[in-house]
Amino acid sequence: MDNVRVTVRAAAVALLVGGLWGGASLHAAKENPAVGSISPERVADYVHAILEADRTIYTTHIVNRMQEKGIVAATEHWEQDNALPLPAQFLQQSGRLVAESGRGIRYRLIGFSPIYQRNAPATEFERKALEVLRRQPEQPVTGVVSSGKKQYFQAIYADRAVSSACVTCHNGHPLSPKQDFRLNDVMGGIAITIPLD
Fold first, then answer.
1. Helix axes of 87-100 and 40-57: crossing angle, nearest 10 degrees
2. CA 2 centroid distance within chain
3. Is the pTM of this model over 0.85?
4. Is the pLDDT of residue 154 over 50?
């Protein structure tokens, strides 16, 4: 049942993004040729707003609330433990489902000092963006990146430790290279990648 909810949520995000990105310019062009398409910066901001809202609600109203009441905990090995996914895992799982939708949009967490190497910055652009966000976390770092012959717009937003679950997991994990995070620290970034073709 939980996988169905995550799948439905990811599909809704994919449809929203697809509608905003692909459908907006087609509809606008038919109705009013002077109206242009939505910029990739705006699409990334919309996607980030949805991700941020979903993650905040999941963290505060589900994870924190269920743990405080002693109903169920969030753990790294949630599938085996019959528990809730950690907030970061929730975002990563939904990001995988959106990527599998075939619309070309992707999002994932990248960290300054990730527990797992798969969450490290994958490109020089991502590494530089994290350095900028460490000093100036208020605005996303954006740019156009290439992969093969395709070009993508990428926006990287600061990812903060929004709950004690984030801090406790990273500070207590045996593989964590940094174990002194505090609430609201910038832990890395949320990388949103949108195809430009």
1. 140
2. 19
3. no
4. yes
